[in-house]
Design goal:
This is RNase H type-1 domain-containing protein. There is one protein chain. With 104 residues, the protein is of the alpha+beta class. The protein folds into 2 domains: 45 residues, no CATH class; 52 residues, no CATH class. Helices cover 46% and strands 12% of the residues. The C terminus is likely disordered.
């Protein structure tokens, strides 16, 4: 049994805006074509913008995966590189940290 509802978050506002636009009949970039293909599957996918500060763990994990071998990465334990970021990503924490950085 697979997932029927998927929520994808990105800190790339331009990408999220492009995804929400209706196709205009012109050729789309390769990435947009792949995203459109994923959207046509039998599931509900929502795309949402989040600022990078509110999504630090995902950002750190994505950067870590840039240097990993191609394929699926599975972790038994939380990678050291994102352990602190997960604490920061807890609801309400990121907003407080953003305010702290703004006042420094």
């Amino acid at each position: 049994m697979g997932f029927r509802r998927v929520e994808a978050e990105s800190d790339n506002l331009m990408l999220i805006s492009l995804i929400h636009k209706r196709p205009n009949g012109e050729d789309e970039a390769a990435l947009m074509g792949r995203i459109r293909t994923l959207q046509t599957r039998s599931w509900i996918v929502t795309f949402k913008y989040v600022n990078r500060e509110a999504n630090r763990a995902a950002d750190a994990l994505a950067k870590m995966e840039l240097y990993a071998a191609p394929g699926l990465s599975l972790f038994v334990d939380v990678p050291d590189v994102i352990e602190e970021e997960l604490i920061v990503d807890r609801p309400g924490i990121a907003a407080n940290i953003s305010r702290i950085y703004a006042h420094v």
